[in-house]
Specification:
The complex is a heterodimer of chains A (about 300) and B (about 270). By secondary structure, chain A is of the alpha/beta class. Chain A has 10 helices and 13 strands. Chain A has 2 domains: about 210 residues, P-loop containing nucleotide triphosphate hydrolases (Rossmann fold, 3-Layer(aba) Sandwich), CATH 3.40.50; about 55 residues, Alpha-Beta Plaits, CATH 3.30.70. In chain A, helix 2 packs parallel to helix 4. The radius of gyration of chain A is 23 Å and the shape is elongated. Chain B has one domain. Classes of the chains: A alpha/beta (about 300), B mainly alpha (about 270).
Chain lengths: ~300, ~270
């Protein structure tokens, strides 16, 4: 439903987004994962026409965003939950959106109800909202026009664990009914839990994409052995590339293959299991050379 | 739904947009009008305008009656230069800059990506508010003048269509000047400061310059926007006055507005 083709966005000499292409399919939640400053927000801003592309293009359902009449009825957008007038009430923010889109005012109450901002909270000014409440209001605003596509930038930011679970359920249900969801996050386990497809971006380039299962698979097998040198030689002879991890080794192969090679060489295995850390190791690994912070200073996900 | 085949071979359904239409222009105008009034800043600016107008007229009334000065209807209307004339441009400024200051432009331009429609709706709003202010001034002026007559003064109702037109054009020029500066700077305090420089500092500089330097004296009527607007108040036009108003408007209103709009329509909205 969302299609990004060879998108590049440059700011002077700096390339924020570097020739990326991907698609987001209906009925699925696509997680856009990457460290801060990787180009996620810029890509999403190009999608909705707030930032012009330097090269390439993005389309939604075959249309450029600019060509969609009354786009709020088709594409729900939340780019920055703080980009609301602090002096308006939550209800007023939604009322303005509903009026612009030509929706009945009952829709405002429905959405406030949906994001649990009904009653007194909806009548408070946005300046008195916590970040979590602003996110809820932003999600309500994105859903206001009953769109079939959602583009959400860091929607879980500021939500408490219960709020994140709520949002997960909401977006899963939305995708199950045929909606297309693109959501970004710099937190891996958030995306791992919610996304059907993951697109990983670092320094403006896509570094990996696939389902969480596919991406997990490639993390390989962790092993420890008594005659470890002998086993390493045998693995290398089989065309594999084992690498030291912690007090053992990791290799891109299934446990069965490693076990067979060990048996054939009479090696005593003392540990053999799928390499742990899941996507997180891969996320850190894939983005290690592309992120701004030192590897060791990465905030816990 | 028809399907689009992507490079990777995935079939992506097309979005059927046939059942939605662009928001009608009048709807955008009514939403923008609402946005000008639904915050404390906007609401109080409008209330202050009306209140200040009433206060200035009351002062005129009291001074006129106690000092035995004859105050005409036209004087009460002219007095709004210090209330409506002062605050209306600020309303014009806020209508645009608040979208940037509060970053709501991101939402506004996402819901209507044809930015010129939003800008046109805002322009229509500020002009409508300027016209409405004229009506309010006329009503308050009528009350003040009637009171003046009732308390012993001689009520002079002479005003006329021409002076009404001049008064209305003055207010519209004021609000548009504010709007133009807002589009140029996209920053509330900056635009307000520059507006006050426009209104109070530049005319003084022109006057001093014209006194001291011969060539400034020669060009001053063609570059001094404040001076060029004077004939509108009394609707008395000397030779070249109309041309000077047009030329100064081009320099101080149309040029910044054009540059500002070009910027707003193209700017990356952060």
């Amino acid at each position: 439903m969302i299609k990004v083709e060879n998108l590049t966005r440059k700011y002077g000499a700096f390339t924020a987004v570097d020739d990326i292409s991907f698609v987001c399919r209906p009925g699925r939640v696509t997680g856009f994962l990457g460290p801060n400053g990787a180009g996620k927000t810029t890509t999403m801003r190009v999608m909705v026409g707030l930032t012009p592309a330097t090269h390439g293009q993005t389309t939604i359902g075959g249309h450029k965003y600019h060509d969609i009449p009354n786009p709020g009825r088709h594409v729900g957008v939340l780019l920055d939950a703080s980009a609301q007038h602090a002096g308006r009430t939550g209800r007023e923010v939604l009322t303005i959106g509903a009026k612009t889109m030509g929706l009945p005012m009952s829709r405002v109450d429905e959405m406030l109800e949906l994001v649990s901002l009904s009653g007194a909270e909806g009548k408070r000014r946005v300046r008195n909202y916590s970040l979590g409440m602003r996110q809820r209001l932003g999600i309500a605003h994105a859903l206001l026009g009953d769109p079939s596509v959602l583009i959400l930038d860091e929607p879980a930011n500021g939500l408490d664990p219960a709020g994140i679970r709520w949002m997960r359920g909401l977006l899963k249900g939305y995708a199950d009914r045929g909606g297309t969801v693109l959501l970004s996050s710099h937190l891996l386990n958030e995306v791992e839990q919610i996304a059907d497809d993951i697109i990983m971006i670092g320094r403006g380039k896509i570094v990996a994409e696939g389902t969480p299962a596919e991406l997990l698979q490639s993390t390989g097998t962790f092993f420890k052995a008594v005659e470890v040198e002998q086993l390493l030689d045998a693995l290398v002879a089989s065309g594999l590339h084992p690498a030291p991890v912690g007090d053992g080794y990791r290799v891109d192969a299934e446990a069965l293959q490693v076990g067979k090679i060990a048996a054939a060489n009479s090696v005593t295995l003392i540990e053999l299991r799928p390499a742990d850390g899941g996507l997180e190791d891969m996320f850190l690994e894939l983005t290690a050379d592309t992120q701004r912070e030192d590897f060791g200073q990465v905030a816990p996900a | 739904m028809s399907a689009v085949l992507t490079k990777g071979g995935h079939e992506l359904p097309a979005l059927d947009t046939s059942h939605t239409k662009h928001p009608p222009f009048l709807r955008l105008v009514s939403v923008e009008l609402r946005k000008m009034m639904d915050t404390r800043a906007g609401l109080w600016l409008v209330i202050s305008m009306a209140a200040l107008t009433a206060i200035v007229m009351t002062i005129q009334l009291i001074v006129g009656l106690t000092q035995d000065i004859n105050i005409k209807y036209a004087d009460f209307i002219a007095g709004t230069t210090y209330s409506i004339g002062l605050l209306l441009p600020i309303l014009g400024i806020l209508s645009l800059t608040s979208e940037w200051g509060q970053r709501t432009a991101m939402v506004t331009f996402t819901l209507e990506p044809h930015r010129w429609r939003i800008i046109a709706a805002k322009l229509a709003c500020v002009v409508a508010i300027a016209i409405a202010s004229v009506a309010v001034a006329l009503v308050l002026g009528t009350v003040a003048n009637a009171l003046f007559g009732a308390f012993g003064g001689t009520a002079d109702w002479d005003f006329g269509v021409e002076r009404l037109a001049g008064f209305a054009i003055l207010q519209v020029l004021g609000v548009l000047t504010g709007f133009a500066l807002a589009a140029l700077l996209l920053n509330t305090p900056g635009a307000i400061v520059v507006y006050f420089v426009y209104s109070f500092v530049l005319p003084t500089l022109f006057a001093i310059g014209a006194e001291l330097v011969g060539w400034i004296n020669d060009i001053q009527p063609w570059v001094d926007f404040g001076d060029a607007q004077l004939p509108l108040g009394e609707w008395e036009w000397a030779k070249n006055d109309a041309a000077q108003l047009v030329v100064t408007s081009l320099i101080w209103l149309v040029l910044p507005l054009a540059i500002g709009l070009w910027r707003v329509l193209r700017a990356e909205v952060k």
